């Protein structure tokens, strides 16, 4: 009986390792797709330029 338990534990361990490997690969693929989508989107151009107000010294949008 002990060899049967050892075989079952080994098979269970292999199944767990395979599941973890596939999950890690899927998550890394999703992260890579998100990273590439972020790189592909154009840079925002609606950010105003700040100029210093000579009277108050504060920076204000152009």
TrEMBL record:
Organism: Nitrobacter winogradskyi (strain ATCC 25391 / DSM 10237 / CIP 104748 / NCIMB 11846 / Nb-255)
Protein name: Uncharacterized protein
Region feature (Disordered): 42-62
Domain of life where this protein originates: Bacteria
């Amino acid at each position: 009986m002990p060899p049967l338990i050892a075989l079952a534990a080994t098979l269970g361990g292999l199944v767990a390792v395979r599941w973890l490997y596939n999950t890690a690969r899927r998550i890394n693929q999703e992260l890579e797709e998100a990273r590439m989508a972020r790189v592909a989107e154009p840079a925002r151009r609606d950010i105003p330029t700040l100029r210093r107000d000579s009277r108050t010294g504060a920076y204000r949008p152009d």
